[in-house]
Design a protein that fits this description.
Keywords: Signal. This is Rhodanese-like domain-containing protein. The chain is an alpha/beta fold. Helix content is about 30%, strand content about 15%. It has one domain: Oxidized Rhodanese, domain 1, CATH 3.40.250.10.
């Protein structure tokens, strides 16, 4: 039996079938906002469950893309400039999956208004507003930006979401080629 008042109470509650709340450490709590989006330490081990949809591997990604799925790369960019015509000036090339579309500012835990507009406008264009279109979301291995984006797509109402949690590295490790990718152009949305 438990010793001390707290363990004894927890044991009694567990035996009674009451759910137990396991508080996050202070450091862990600072990594998430109140709505569950990861807001810090984006390059860290990710969960083995998707926040929505399901996890897929490289071979499934290839099959889904062959059936018309949108491959959505959300590897983040912190340093960039945007031209008057909506093009992106980036400091270095980005290698990604052939046929993927790169939205480099939509995976952060908290989006500015123009970033949310960019995500919404881009997805509407890329899916033809079909909320049942298959979307495969990825970034890099151990990257929470894709996890956040999957959560965001689910909240927006997309029903066929796949999380390729291994991302670009898992694709290359499976023997597939990578290609240089430019960010998808901005439409009406602009950073302020």
């Amino acid at each position: 039996m438990s010793k001390g008042p707290i363990p004894a109470i927890c044991t009694a509650l567990a035996l009674a079938g009451a759910p137990l709340f396991v508080p996050l450490s202070h450091a862990e709590a600072l990594r998430f906002d109140t709505t569950g989006y990861r807001i810090a330490d984006y390059r860290a081990p990710v969960p083995d469950q998707a926040p929505a949809g399901r996890i897929v591997g490289a071979e499934e990604v290839e099959a889904l893309h062959g059936r018309g799925a949108l491959l959505l790369d959300v590897v983040g960019l912190r340093h960039f400039r945007i031209t008057d015509d909506g093009g992106w000036l980036v400091p270095e090339p980005h290698l990604s999956l052939p046929g993927a579309v790169w939205l480099p500012v939509v995976g952060w835990g908290q989006l500015e208004g123009w970033q949310q507009d960019y995500l919404d406008e881009s997805l509407a264009q890329l899916t033809g507003t079909d909320m049942s279109k298959s979307v495969v979301v990825f970034c890099l291995m151990d990257c929470w930006l894709s996890w956040n984006t999957v959560k965001r797509l689910d909240a927006a109402g997309y029903s066929e979401i796949y999380w390729f949690s291994g991302g670009v590295e898992a694709w290359a490790d499976a023997g597939h080629d990578l290609v240089a990718l430019e960010p998808y152009p901005l439409g009406r949305s602009r950073p302020e």
